[in-house]
């Protein structure tokens, strides 16, 4: 290959890597800035440019966050409990509903599915007041179940995602299970779910990230500290302590770390679910 030809091939490749590098910088810069700010003292943050690294770094913000002054342990525990219950419910009920829409035949199946899917177009803000009124009338305001019940029975996006994946499973595989005497539940448990692990892992990550970062509904339905979730507690730090950004960034860093660990653990399954499923 001649030098001009190699140059013509190298230019698009170099431009692609440059765009990817710029995208990575734009994506990672807020996280890096958050960690840098969390490792500064309030005096350093007030007297130095924002982009200056902490000199010297300090963990005082993290010790203050968990040392009793700000009581940040309770919101983490509440958020973890809420996310765990919602995750189990979302996976369980979404699998059942998606399999019914994908593989079972009953009158009005497709019409019911598309009507249900159309609720994705309804903004959350539209349903906040009716939901709040409903839970208030039931005496469930500021309770754990008020945080989880609106989301625990599946969601249109989760059901749509799983339905499309279940439809890609070869019918011969399911017919073979039926010939072996497996009913619907046994087929679902021993055939469909095991081969759907990549998409289930993806759905699990989406569910955890979505509800770990949920803010509007917990803010509306809860008051006080008992059932305060992580996002509401972080917002409270900003207003309660007059914009102490080093503490706020420490809280933000703590909130982000579990999500990063979750993605690193399950990234292989996510990539598999996005690329070739093996059935198409």
TrEMBL record:
Ranges for the ABC transmembrane type-1 domain?
76-266
Provide the transmembrane region boundaries.
16-39, 72-101, 113-132, 144-162, 199-220, 245-266
Q: Where in the cell is it found?
A: Cell membrane
- Note the InterPro entries from the entry: MetI-like, MetI-like_sf
- Topology class, membrane: Multi-pass membrane protein
Task: Fetch the Pfam families from UniProt.
Answer: BPD_transp_1 (PF00528)
Q: Which UniProt keywords apply?
A: Cell membrane, Membrane, Transmembrane, Transmembrane helix, Transport
Q: Which residues form a coiled coil?
A: none
- Matching Gene3D superfamilies, A to Z? MetI-like (1.10.3720.10)
The record ties this protein, via CDD domains, to: TM_PBP2
Q: Which family does it belong to?
A: Belongs to the binding-protein-dependent transport system permease family.
Protein name per Swiss-Prot or TrEMBL: Carbohydrate ABC transporter permease
Q: Which organism is it from?
A: Pseudonocardia alaniniphila
* UniProt lineage: Bacteria, Bacillati, Actinomycetota, Actinomycetes, Pseudonocardiales
